[in-house]
Specification:
This protein has about 500 residues and is of the alpha/beta class. Helix 2 crosses helix 10. The chain folds into 3 domains: about 80 residues, Archaeosine Trna-guanine Transglycosylase, Chain: A, domain 4 (Roll); about 120 residues, 3-Layer(aba) Sandwich (Rossmann fold); about 230 residues. It has a 7-stranded parallel beta sheet with strand order 19-20-18-17-21-22-23, sandwiched between helices. The protein has a 4-stranded antiparallel beta sheet with strand order 1-2-5-8, with no helix packed on it. The chain has 13 helices and 23 strands.
Length: about 500
């Protein structure tokens, strides 16, 4: 097995694929310090103030002289990023990588023309005050029926919002819940309100747009004597409407796949993230859709994405996406580059540039077809960028609310959580996959051990197909299904 990797011939650092000891030789250099797995060491002497290169790009600058063979990390290196910037468009010709043999998947056709990969019943509260009632309605319905042939489960998606919110927060909460209510993975939905909240049921219905009335019920708890009994009765109606839905064969291009990472380590940009990037190129190549979010984790790699914009209008949108998120930080008097997290640093990621260049590997090499802001619908096939933070639960909720059927979630540290759509956890290293088999769906760590990207891509495509066809992900099996709605304003 390889001990180290130099990602680009331009790099001034290498990454340890195994723990290395002081005095050991690696890449023709005698190491002057112990180097943990995923961490970097200098391939040559680096002067204080000099730029440090990884992925063939700048990941920061040395804060002191660093001798060849020394550990390169936060003790001797810092970010070189500043605030909002001016950018210019330099169109880069993108060459899709990989083979484009299409597959078929078995999905549910919805009245809207969309397809779903699950046929579930959902209870969605408009306000956190009725969270307990939402859970009880789902629980009582399940208790009454036991097994429910024809559907994939009944779930209540609770949250703390829907009242004491104004402006953007109020609109975002309502819009997120409305998009959930119309998500094609949902075969029937009960929208549950209290009756005195800001997120009023009458306005919720009026602004919902087109929806399948045979698959949607609305209940205001203050308007009935027993909201639990009434809610269970509504679920009975929804179950009767959904239980005979049948899967049909469609081309894999019908899928919309979210791209996300969390708990990254030094191998994220070497194994799992570039593998997902190859998958993104594959899906785009067969006419499907992928969506990359986590805007703060584009900082430092944004120009690479901008140069892949399909046209100047898309480039302008990316500039607005990136600088808009920096301005959000500055508005709240927070440092724009307060990243990576402690877990990232423990895994070998030093600066935000280091993290971002690894994170954006998930986008592959194809052109950026569109950029989505709050209120925008996902319409463009190919690679899309989506506005939103890096927070795992918020980002996955955003991706699913935008219409993604599945989220591919790469991780080097591990996490058990999942969103309201199947969340495929992909480990960057095999040790994590072995130790947390109840969390991890796919092990990309073998790539660091000499495994083939092509073979792993085929395996990942097959897993996505199986998941679309109904195979449960780890988060589904363990019941890890949560939503988190982005909040930016005041609470009344």
């Amino acid at each position: 097995m390889k001990k180290t990797i130099i990602i680009s011939p331009l790099d001034s650092v290498a990454v340890a694929l195994l723990p290395l000891k002081k005095g050991e030789e690696a890449e023709g250099i005698v190491l002057l310090e112990d180097i943990e797995k995923g961490h970097k060491f200098a391939l040559r002497d680096i002067r204080g103030g000099e730029q440090v290169i990884k992925y063939g790009e700048v990941i920061g600058r040395a804060t002191t002289n660093i001798a060849a063979g020394c550990h390169v990390h936060s003790h001797n290196m810092e970010t070189g990023l500043l605030g909002t910037l001016e950018y210019s468009y330099h169109k880069k010709e993108t060459a899709q990588q990989g083979r484009y043999q299409s597959r078929t998947v078995s999905v549910y056709e919805r009245e809207s023309g969309e397809v779903g990969i699950r046929n579930e019943l959902w209870v969605i509260p408009t306000v956190g005050c009725v969270n307990a009632q939402a859970r009880r309605i789902a629980c009582e319905f399940l208790k009454k029926h036991g097994e429910l042939p024809g559907i994939d489960g009944v779930f209540a998606y609770t949250h703390p919002y829907g009242c004491s919110q104004i402006g953007e927060d109020h609109e975002r909460t309502r819009r997120t819940l409305q998009r959930m209510a119309k998500h094609p993975n949902c075969g029937g939905v009960l929208v549950l309100g209290l009756g005195c909240e800001n997120n009023r049921m009458d306005i919720f219905r009026e602004t919902l747009g087109d929806y399948d009335k045979s698959r949607t019920r609305f209940l205001v708890a203050q308007e009935v004597e027993n909201e639990i009994d009434t809610g269970v009765a509504y679920l009975e109606e929804l179950y009767a409407a959904a239980k005979n839905d049948m899967r049909v064969q469609k081309d894999i291009s019908c899928l919309k796949i979210g791209l996300k990472c969390g708990g990254s380590d030094g191998l994220s940009g070497i194994t799992a993230n570039p593998l997902v990037g190859r998958f993104s190129d594959y899906i785009a190549g067969v006419g499907g859709t992928t969506v990359l979010t986590e805007v703060p984790e584009m900082f430092g790699a944004e120009q690479l994405l901008m140069d892949r914009a399909k046209d100047e209008a898309t480039f302008d949108k990316i500039v607005r996406l990136v600088n808009g998120f920096k301005e959000y930080y500055q508005k709240h008097d927070q440092p724009v580059y307060e990243n990576p997290s402690p877990g990232n640093k423990a895994g070998g990621i030093t600066t935000l540039e280091d993290k971002s260049l690894g994170c954006t590997q998930k986008s592959g090499t194809g052109e950026v077809c569109d950029v989505l802001f709050d209120g925008d619908a996902l319409i463009a096939r190919g690679l899309n960028l989506l506005n939103g933070p890096g927070n795992d639960m918020v980002a996955v909720t955003n991706l699913a609310s935008a219409g993604c059927h599945i989220v591919l979630f790469t991780t080097g540290r591990g996490t058990p959580f999942g969103g309201f759509v199947p969340t495929i956890k992909i480990s960057t290293n095999s040790e994590l996959a072995g130790r947390k088999a109840n969390w991890i769906d796919f092990d990309a760590g073998g790539i660091a051990e000499g495994g083939s990207f092509e073979e792993k891509l085929d395996e990942l495509i097959e897993l996505v197909v199986a998941t679309a066809n109904g195979q449960q992900t780890a988060n589904e099996r363990t019941g890890a299904r949560d939503i988190a709605i982005f909040k930016t304003g005041v609470t009344l």
